[in-house]
């Protein structure tokens, strides 16, 4: 896929005129990252935003006490690093590739030029930020219900991202207990208890490496251990504390 096609897929440049896309295309710099490499570092100065064109990244933040909290995952097409670029501040989180990632970097100077010339970009940016605020609000609601709701929200969010990205078998989430501990800031015992409860209610199935291999689905490059969603509507009912019997 060409850079131009990548830009046309990005929510940041949706419905822009052809000359605007050409302007951005000339300004971006392509970067590639291997799994485990850092795209953006917390507290570093924000000089450029990244347009993720392929792959998946993990967004996390380390507290003053040194504890890492995973804020979520982003699949292509996605934009990261735009807030620090806009307000000329330090990064508020780190972004790390969890598989090979290709990204287009757009530096602040060029981004400002594009926004001034094509104000439509500001509307697209507003939509991106509004969606994130909505997600944060939904997550806060889930956290206020109980741990089961919080986990259900995290699982559903990742499922929907994988579905939108066209990932094969989007309902299979390559997450370990450690991943969920970091995502929910919960103990291993709590994560195990909640997963057992969700399994008992036939909402999810915890999948092991051996069971994936037996079923012939062991094609995740060593990441076969994960969670298979069985009932998305049931999980959503848990998120918002709805009565599943109705």
From TrEMBL:
Pfam families assigned to the protein according to its UniProt record, in alphabetical order: cNMP_binding, HTH_Crp_2
SUPFAM superfamilies, per the entry: cAMP-binding domain-like (SSF51206), Winged helix' DNA-binding domain (SSF46785)
Gene Ontology molecular-function annotations: DNA binding; DNA-binding transcription factor activity
Keyword annotations: DNA-binding, Transcription, Transcription regulation
Any one Gene Ontology cellular component term annotated for this protein: cytosol
SMART domains per UniProt: cNMP
Keyword tRNA processing included in the entry's annotation: no
Domain of life: Bacteria
Domain Cyclic nucleotide-binding: 12-132
Cross-referenced PROSITE patterns: CNMP_BINDING_3
Record PANTHER family: CRP FAMILY TRANSCRIPTIONAL REGULATORY PROTEIN, HTH-TYPE TRANSCRIPTIONAL REGULATOR ARCR
Protein's recorded name: Transcriptional regulator, Crp/Fnr family
Organism, scientific name: Deinococcus maricopensis (strain DSM 21211 / LMG 22137 / NRRL B-23946 / LB-34)
